[in-house]
Fold this sequence. Notes:
- The chain is an alpha/beta fold.
- It is 46% helix and 17% strand.
- It has one domain (2-142): Sugar-phosphate isomerase, RpiB/LacA/LacB (Ribose 5-phosphate Isomerase B, Chain: A, 3-Layer(aba) Sandwich).
- It has a 5-stranded parallel β-sheet with strand order 2-1-3-5-4, with helices on both faces.
Amino acid sequence: xxxxxxxxxxxxxxxxxxxxxxxxxxxxxxxxxxxxxxxxxxxxxxxxxxxxxxxxxxxxxxxxxxxxxxxxxxxxxxxxxxxxxxxxxxxxxxxxxxxxxxxxxxxxxxxxxxxxxxxxxxxxxxxxxxxxxxxxxxxxxxxxx
Length: 145
Ligand code: RB5
């Protein structure tokens, strides 16, 4: 899959290890920055990654900041985005299976790289189950009209 990845300064190290993992899993990664530890504003990264996802330029996005919260709030302002903050493997699995999340967010100051790798591996592998969940996701989409 094609995956857009981005972070602010609070997520720089975790982005590097997630990028390495995605490459090892055979995904094509497009890195939207940031690229240095200089302080930056997470909406400036969230929006281009979100646009890449909703335009179909990439299949999915992964966004990382200190908590995973701010960058996810910003991404969810873009129509078509379903960004899910996941800090455990159960949430990662069901954000895909039930919510068809198209962006995963995580916080580097919350979880370590080992757990993040498990979360990303599960999240990338899991398909949307559809069925009754399709109806619910359609209702979310209707809120954007
Ligand atoms: C940056 O200091 C920090 O606020 C940011 O990375 C994130 O945690 C915001 O939600």
